[in-house]
User: Fold this.
Amino acid sequence: GQQVMQIPQYQHVQEGEDFTTYCNSSTTLSNIQWYKQRPGGHPVFLIQLVKSGEVKKQKRLTFQFGEAKKNSSLHITATQTTDVGTYFCAGPFSAGGTSYGKLTFGQGTILTVHP
Amino acid sequence: DGGITQSPKYLFRKEGQNVTLSCEQNLNHDAMYWYRQDPGQGLRLIYYSQIVNDFQKGDIAEGYSVSREKKESFPLTVTSAQKNPTAFYLCASRTDRAANTEAFFGQGTRLTVV
Assistant:
């Protein structure tokens, strides 16, 4: 099975509050990607992180890749109702054997925002 | 208009029947993927293909089969051996089979087995 844990599974916030989801791997990752899936929709790519300690920002979203390249986080500042959806991390996670070309997703964090 | 197309959007089948889900892309991507998503759950990898005429099992391949005879097409067959086939199925593709590019998803097929 997968060697990545994404937490929390659910997060309910009031509009304007911050939100963070974490992705933790038992092995070092070559890269990690983040996707957002709106309710009833399909996942859409947000960003990819490759370098150790990398931090990238997209407006109110901040993405980090850990120094050891084993964990990553997505932080949303001052959530809005448009942020509702499920956020996934994804990467060449593998329980064993080659992970070349494989794209495996974390369990996802379902975010609900109360206006 | 480039993209990845899954059809049909909704599919109903009787228990014990095989069913094939279509996935076509005109993005000239090498790699293609099939995922299963259950309500409130994440995406679980069924099969993936990095090049024509080659594919690998994902984490939950039992009860499924695929083929990759053309670069543009990666159909998924849900066989009668799949014990709980009702789910949302997503197909994805990406250009780089070396795993450093974003994946593009189709709209998904919601399969209901009765």
Observations:
- Chain A has a mean pLDDT of 91.
- Chain A touches chain B at residues 1-2, 6, 30-31, 33, 35, 42-45, 48, 50, 88, 90, 92, 95, 99-108, 110 (CB under 8 Å).
- Chain A is about 0% helix and 50% strand.
